[in-house]
Amino acid sequence: MEDLGSRIARTLRREREAAGLSISELARRAGVSKATVSQLENGSGNPSVETLWAIGVALGVPFAVLVDQQAGAPTLIRVADLSGVPSAAAPYSATLLSASPPGARRDVYLIQAEPGEPRRSLPHHAGTTEHVILISGGARIGPDDATIELSPGDYLSYAGDVPHVFEALVPGTSAVMISELR
């Protein structure tokens, strides 16, 4: 199985070249350093969720495109083998479990978070809805101005195209998140 860094490197170069952008121009549009983009394309970078979101927005592609595995036979992802993308601002990581296939618009993630600084997200593409099912722990989730406290088994759906937050309240908090674009 291809590791996360190699997948990001391969996909980032493909998407940047398809967009006709230089490394410098992509870095400028994403608000990251040229060295960061170059390192990621060489497979040597260690990006945060925030960096990959910014690059995805600059390229006009969803986050999932940058981290997805190639399609193939049945996909089994063992929890011990997860290689999530950590947040630079919070004890939080997102692991893409299933990217939306062509023609469909949904991605499935496993979220693992610890109490501390909440993971604050900027608005995603217009029309994005996030669906969260809390698996373990406890969390406060939703739009910045209307978060809701969830317990294991609770489901919440909210607009992902407005600022929103995921705040773990209990150690070992985990959730399944489905990002849907209409």
From TrEMBL:
Protein name: XRE family transcriptional regulator
Keyword field: DNA-binding
Domain HTH cro/C1-type, residue spans: 12-66
InterPro entries membership: Cro/C1-type_HTH, Lambda_DNA-bd_dom_sf, RmlC-like_jellyroll, RmlC_Cupin_sf, TransReg_Diox_bact_type
Pfam family, one: HTH_3
Annotated PANTHER family: HTH-TYPE TRANSCRIPTIONAL REGULATOR, METHYLPHOSPHONATE SYNTHASE
UniProt signal peptide: none
Domain of life assignment: Bacteria
Entry annotated with the keyword Glycoprotein: no
